[in-house]
Specification:
25 strands, globular, 4-stranded antiparallel sheet, 14% helix, 5 helices, 5-stranded mixed sheet
Length: 404
């Protein structure tokens, strides 16, 4: 009887919490539904000037000690920029002005060294001045800001692909994509400062057997004192805060239940599921104080892309197609991705931030090759003076500041 009573108490408390979360969202009108397909048919362009209030161009110093062939990840705080070199897997630290400082950790087999191609992404604990190298299947390697190896982080048993420090010392964690459910049973989780798991969210469709569930892709986007998480088998973008996990918005693709089930079933992974004409996928997204921004891919022939914006105050959802030139120029370049909207703020590169820093700042990276190709196509005729790169230069960091 005691066990049954405890179960019922747990159920009631859970329902009350969920109900409170839902009511608060409805009252604040936080959870808007983005009707993706309908918006594509309307073609309603919007301007960077609605949201962007400043752009800063930071060339990364180029020396023999920090040559970057292609930049695959970037994270920054108020003082430093940390970047990953895709060809060698090295992680370099630069000042906020772009001056090279040091390398963080080293590739190798020795103590504190990491094997090549194991780093999924990088995260920071800005309070402790620690750098986390996150991996899908291994504990995170933790280094000091000076590049010294400190420890491996074994506080979380499940596979963790990313983490974000919240103001109260707790962490928002993302699961690991393409990992069996035994290693990564949730999309996103909240862990407190005592390493206790406080909440998790598993997005899997009910019809997928538990032993077959996996996430093909996870997008994890920090914003203010929270983080957003999304995966392909569910249309809800979830928000993790210090108090729990709730829906942030619904990205309504209308791909159908069958698509959601196949994309979450590891048994379907090797099968030919290419009959995806007009299937919609969320390529990337980010958030500002006013808007959610989405880059949406349509798996048609030829493939199409749309840049879309959801107003968090009114629910207005605008959409415009991305130029085919921008898509073609971005193939194969993680640090030259220009699949975005034309820059009507200062005539610079197409607007498509990929990296997130703090609540009002997003970051984009451009390399010399893509910059030259844009100019050869007739773009950037009125580009800002600061946007200059020579062929052998490291990529340039573009920092966007948004309005409140």
């Amino acid at each position: 009887m005691k066990n049954k009573a405890q179960v019922w108490i747990g159920v009631v408390l859970t329902l009350l919490i969920l109900g409170a979360c839902q009511s608060a969202s409805l009252e604040k009108k936080d959870v808007w539904v983005a009707d993706v397909r309908s918006a594509m048919e309307q073609n309603t362009p919007f301007s960077m000037k609605d949201d962007v209030m400043g752009i800063e161009y930071i060339p990364l110093e180029t020396t023999d000690s920090c040559l970057i062939s292609n930049l695959t990840y970037l994270i920054m705080d108020d003082d430093f920029i940390f970047v990953q070199n895709g060809k060698t897997d090295q992680v370099f630290k630069f000042t906020r002005q772009g001056k090279f400082v040091c390398q963080i950790g080293r590739v190798g087999n020795g103590p504190g060294e990491y094997a090549p191609w194991t780093i999924e992404n990088i995260s920071l604990d800005v309070n402790k001045k620690e750098v986390f190298f996150n991996s899908r299947r291994l504990p995170a390697f933790v280094y000091s800001y000076d590049g010294e190896f400190l420890r491996t982080d074994t506080t979380t048993v499940e596979a963790v692909e990313n983490r974000y420090l919240l103001n109260n010392g707790s962490f928002a964690l993302s699961g690991a994509s393409i990992t069996p459910i035994q290693q990564s049973p949730w999309l996103v989780a909240l862990k407190n400062e005592k390493n206790q798991m406080m909440a998790t969210k598993s997005p899997f469709p009910a019809n997928v057997p538990a032993e077959a569930c996996y996430m093909q892709e996870i997008q994890f986007v920090p914003f203010q004192n929270s983080a957003l998480a999304y995966t392909l088998c569910n249309d809800t973008v979830f928000r993790v805060t210090e108090t729990g996990i709730c829906p942030a918005c619904v990205y309504d693709k209308k791909n159908g239940a069958e698509y959601n089930e196949k994309i979450a079933d590891i048994n379907e992974m090797a099968k030919d599921n290419t009959n995806t004409l007009f299937t919609i996928e969320l390529f990337t997204f980010f958030e500002t104080s006013r808007y959610f921004y989405f880059r949406t891919i349509v798996l048609s022939k030829p493939e199409k892309c749309f840049f879309q914006r959801l107003d968090k105050r009114t629910g207005e959802f605008l959409s415009q197609p991305v130029k085919q030139d921008f898509m073609e120029l971005s193939v194969g370049f993680s640090d030259g991705n220009v699949i975005g909207m034309e820059n009507d703020w200062d005539g610079g590169v197409p607007f498509c931030p990929r990296y997130i820093y703090k609540d009002r700042i997003c970051v984009q990276v451009i390399n010399a090759v893509t910059l030259e190709k844009l100019e050869n196509k007739g773009y950037l005729k009125d580009k800002p003076v600061a946007l200059q790169l020579d062929a052998d230069d490291n990529p340039m960091v573009i920092v966007y500041t948004f309005r409140n």
